[in-house]
Predict the structure.
Amino acid sequence: MPPKSRFAGKALHPAQSIKRLIKTLFRYYPKLMTLVIVCILFSALVSAIPALFVQSITADITAWTQTGDWDAAKAVIFPKIGVLIALYVLNLIALTVYQQLMAYITQGFLCRLRCEMFSGMQNLPISYFDTHKHGDIMSHYTNDIDTLRQLISQAIPSLIQAGSIVLFVFAIMIYFSVWLTLIVLVGVAFMFVLSGKIGGGSAKYFLRAQETVAKTEGYIQEVMNGQKVVKVFSREQPCQAEFDALNEQHFEAVYIANGRANALGPIIMNIGNILYVLIAMFGGMLMLSGLPNVGLAGLPFGVDILVPFLNMTKQFTGNVNQISQQINSVVMAIAGAERIFTLMDTEPETDEGYVTLVNVHVNEDGSLTETTELTKHWAWKHPHTADGSITYTSLKGDVRLTEVDFAYEKGKTVLHDVSVFAKPGQKVAFVGATGAGKTTITNLINRFYDIEDGKIRYDGININKIKKSDLRRSLGIVLQETNLFSGTVMENIRYGRLEATDAECEQAAKLAGADDFIRRLPDGYQTQLSNNGANLSQGQRQLIAIARAAVADPPVMILDEATSAIDTHTEAIVQKGMDALMKGRTVFVIAHRLSTVKNSDVIMVLDHGRIIERGSHQELIDQQGTYYQLYTGAFELE
């Protein structure tokens, strides 16, 4: 297997993750996010300025108690109260607007991010999925995305609002009294020190929680896929013990992270209460001592300064507490964002090919003309950069591997000097022990992996020059492990060629020998399949996979243990259809049942990545070498 590091995206610094997340958010919704921030800032300003009104109204009431002119006081106080009410109404509108917008933006952002992730995942090489647990990959779409939902819908608006209120209130505090502001700053500095120690300590556990939940989900997915094996070998208890260990690790990480984070709120809240008392004490001392007040407003220190300042102290510390409470969401989101961006930044499958597959008309003189019509004639369109000309080569299915070497990991070669020549219409079989390199050869023809040395030519064209999507469109493959998708039987067969008609799908099923059992299903071809066709036998699933390859009608077929899940009686029925399917096509067959490869044009025997024998069935039997031993051994077993 290839090493994981080859496909892993480069991990981002936490600050880079947040910066990139916010840039992506504004890239998706620039105007709406700007409107949201304006609404939040307006709301924060309205939340801060009541202190100014309270100071002014308190001063007016103090003046009224001294003069006794209530009418004059009403003429000043009531308009101020009216303005304050109007601001609160506007604030309510702003809050409603931004909350509704954030609900839309959050879900839209996550939707588009999932689309980007999935689109990028489609471009990853097969080897990435060979080296990463599927449950771990799924965790990106569930747990990691959910952490971003909390960040965008709750944490970011709360941080902007609370941070803005803190700045506005701080400015008003300086405006009123520098002495009392200094006391508040000392208390807040102490709050931030505690937040850094407690919150910073919880951060690494939140990161660990994201990793452990991914491991747990990966293990669950693995055990669910292998449930039959677990039960056959009575491994329920060991599986339970291993799951309990993983679950315990997750529990400990989440418990410590949340325990530390949740302790932060009460601590800061009580520091705020102590600070409130200190402000009241020092404020009273200033009033009694008659010390001059220092502030931008230049107002003398009195009740009209102390009362709003006490309220601002509560508001200031409350919003600092609100900021600290978002540490949980921010840290978890950073962990989720790092994993998501690592997946998105993983190097995609490279494709330097420029030769494409096109429909052509065959002219009377044998020349080819490209057409947009759907014909049964295909050709390779080969543009030549040297002179700007374009040549067309008929798609025939001539596949040649010349002195090919290949290694999954550098320095560990698994195929040595492999040469295979398959002319159009020939049937080539690969036999050998497990791990000899049979499937690896077919993976190289598909370009699931790229060779280290040698050449692979398709109709005389180096396959490195052919676009991978076009190359794979010209190949049909039936794997040993069958994958059926949720949907009807008809839809699963049509997966091989989406534009195929119902009649063509049914014809393909007949060719594969699947039509009979499909018609006996409850709804025939419209029978719904789910959970990888769990309501079908393994052999029936394999027949549908063969029909899927048949409807694609490619010139080259790869059958990797295609009949391994079919009993010998069914195999006899299918073989007739398979022969018809293979007629006129270049076919590569991998089989452990040597009876299925007897009629091949050439049989290649592999051992440890080398072709040690090649020839027809009779030629290899006459040689009485490895193939002879394999064949006679299989015959004796049968």
About this structure: The first helix runs from residue 14 to 28.
